[in-house]
Please model this.
Amino acid sequence: MDSEEIFNAIFNEKNFFMIAGPCAVESEEQIVSAARFLRSRGVMILRGGAYKPRTSPDTFQGLGEEGLRMLAKAREVTGMLVVTEVMDPEHIPIVSRYADILQIGSRNCQNFPLLRAAGSTGMPVLIKRGFGNTVSEFLHAASYVSKQKNDRIILVERGIRTFETSMRFTLDVAAVPVIREQVPYPILVDPSHPAGKSKYVRPLAMAGVGAGADGLMIEVHPSPGDALSDAEQQLDFQEFETLQNDVGRMLSAMGRNVLGIAESP
Amino acid sequence: MDSEEIFNAIFNEKNFFMIAGPCAVESEEQIVSAARFLRSRGVMILRGGAYKPRTSPDTFQGLGEEGLRMLAKAREVTGMLVVTEVMDPEHIPIVSRYADILQIGSRNCQNFPLLRAAGSTGMPVLIKRGFGNTVSEFLHAASYVSKQKNDRIILVERGIRTFETSMRFTLDVAAVPVIREQVPYPILVDPSHPAGKSKYVRPLAMAGVGAGADGLMIEVHPSPGDALSDAEQQLDFQEFETLQNDVGRMLSAMGRNVLGIAESP
Amino acid sequence: MDSEEIFNAIFNEKNFFMIAGPCAVESEEQIVSAARFLRSRGVMILRGGAYKPRTSPDTFQGLGEEGLRMLAKAREVTGMLVVTEVMDPEHIPIVSRYADILQIGSRNCQNFPLLRAAGSTGMPVLIKRGFGNTVSEFLHAASYVSKQKNDRIILVERGIRTFETSMRFTLDVAAVPVIREQVPYPILVDPSHPAGKSKYVRPLAMAGVGAGADGLMIEVHPSPGDALSDAEQQLDFQEFETLQNDVGRMLSAMGRNVLGIAESP
Amino acid sequence: MDSEEIFNAIFNEKNFFMIAGPCAVESEEQIVSAARFLRSRGVMILRGGAYKPRTSPDTFQGLGEEGLRMLAKAREVTGMLVVTEVMDPEHIPIVSRYADILQIGSRNCQNFPLLRAAGSTGMPVLIKRGFGNTVSEFLHAASYVSKQKNDRIILVERGIRTFETSMRFTLDVAAVPVIREQVPYPILVDPSHPAGKSKYVRPLAMAGVGAGADGLMIEVHPSPGDALSDAEQQLDFQEFETLQNDVGRMLSAMGRNVLGIAESP
Model:
């Protein structure tokens, strides 16, 4: 499938789809290995951060353009599409050269110049809900993109801040049906960030599917223990396979078409 | 099935089960009609409030003992078990005469004398999570019951208070796997109270099932528009049937045994 | 001042007032020593828990009636009024014999039978805001008391649950002006419970005074390090004096009359 | 006082100070009139938005560079310093030409490229706490600025998202003492944004002063009813005077030195 076929499948035919890959691009070997595995499992869109928005300036900030080149290599090798985060309007030209979909992260959900600049590229834009934002604000954020005559928008619910501390964030599954009523964009669930620990990713993913999400965005790493960020919440290949099998059974019980699955062995 | 068989199925064999019925008992006709319908659909446990904890003293407070007698009538007619809320330790003797399971409501999750008194009856106790309580506090609440040498405890996640206002409460599906790790009690999801509107009950119920809940607790009313409380969130019979069918397909994809379903036509 | 004079000062003349004392009554020596000190500082109302609502059943639950007798002793020795928590409607008769004001704790803010029973005694009732309750629910709780023809109600803001964890609860100072607009009852601030640590009690107390609170409710212990509950947040005598001096200067800048201060040396 | 004297008073001598002005710059007449009034009251720092971060792309977005020129005019006329928000790293060169202090708004509290770029100008940077951010994240945001060898940082608590809806945001006064312990930067309270309505600004301001804030940031408009944004929460001149008098009495009871007050008539 080429990129237009994939975009058609997710934006028009409303196929369920997976976005997966490591939190951050760490080396060519790491990202290519993850991509090969994921592609073999029918996943068509690869995630991986080159510019990382980190709470502290003293932690790993991503490989920048070098990371983008590694993502492009993984795309070339596997034919997958690439989504990666852009944090600064100034980086948009360079990120656009390497990526197929621009990601606006949770902390930038109300970074309006960034939303406008991403929207005006004409490329598909994936927006993660701010962990302090209401659904209404999240949809207004999307309207900063659509106002640029760009309706290829993917929304991602990834958990909000609440008083509960047993996981990192509280996944707000209710956002899925509420958003579905109001806009035609695919709404995905990211179970990795609220889970905070890999063992919780599967139940949150299944909850998202149950709520009617159009897809999942999941952190997968060839060797999570060695990851430079979010080490505890990334799945290894085996865990991803188990999850995908469970999700697949559920989707088929729900009668949903799934992007890419038909092509996996 | 008699009550011991049902308790065995839910506490020991870990069958998935439904608790359903109106928010409040309003008349014999209403509760018996709901019970007949639900029993015909394989539901074995009937809910219905006789003592209602209402935010304002000026709204309908429930029928009290008269409501209990109507519940008993519905039990007699259908053979279903009855769960109903107890708000005051003083009411426990009378509620115990009519009910099979004592319910501690969300506002009483940390009403410790009530938990102790309910636990000491030896009857199964259903505890709803306080909407302002952490999972950890919820489990401590359960330990007030288990300390009375009573381990027949059912826990219900029913949504917490957060900044998001698009639904009435934010259903915290993450509570399901977190609780599962720590205690052996069945953990149910109540999608009706967080939804606030009937149209949202189904996606939240499915999310709860996806997260691995052991059951659902759902408000069903013969004629929701006429209900004296929670009118907007109660399902009618048709909506319940649709929900139950969807849930059933999902449970079977997940390989779960379901209480009572085998007996429905 | 006798009790009617004190009640007149706080309910009718709207004098600013302090309620202070240990979290729990632990011994006669402890409570009498705290009372003597506080009375010497012009404080007219003594707090101290005999029945303690504890999250876990395995921690100190209070001395019960023995604690009530110790409170009565402190009252006899100092002439202070006594406020103490009641958790169970069944305890109201006995608590009423020893206390001047009945306290409904945060966890029981929506324990409606308890509110009704406390209201019907005709005694003043102090209600703490539930940490998961909105101001609107808090005021509805008060209406369960006033509906018993009892308008001697004291409201206490003591912090709510939010995502912020640098203190134990988030003191919602905004509740003070919002409540003031809607009901004529004194609204106090309890800085001890949100602070969680004694060093934060003073700034939160001052914030409450700035917001216009009618009083403060503060945990003071002769020897906080030895306390059986809330050890970290109780003030020692010296800390209380400093706080009281600072608060006094602020109240005088704000032009408020203060109960009891005139009588201190 | 020239700008270095003012910066010395607030960063080194820790004088209490006010920042005031309209939400948005709307016309030269509006901003100059506000500045003249505020300067006559001893306020030395003028606020006013030229680039406005608005939830929806369909509402007033600010006058941009034209607004900056109006701010510069007000500065020229009154000698006040000017603080204004910068939303995009690209705008920093132009904003720097007109402003004395760069403001990072609440929605950009974790916009790390923007924080870095603002820090690297060497100008003082005012950072508002994100309404979804913890105090810890807020302090990490400041470290993105200080890492640029820029320690002239002003922090502003302006309310967080909680379940309480009686005001627009919940002012977290506890942030003041917690931040004071950890960093040497002035910590201000903005009572206007949490209040949402002008009648609540005064009690929240007083609460902030009580908590120990080093200053207040307040929205003041010559004619609030005509404002293009935040009309309901801006104070008129009379309301500001009342507030300032009350605050002044409280600061003097607390023994604090106040910037600029000595110069007012």
In short: The mean pLDDT of chain B is 95.
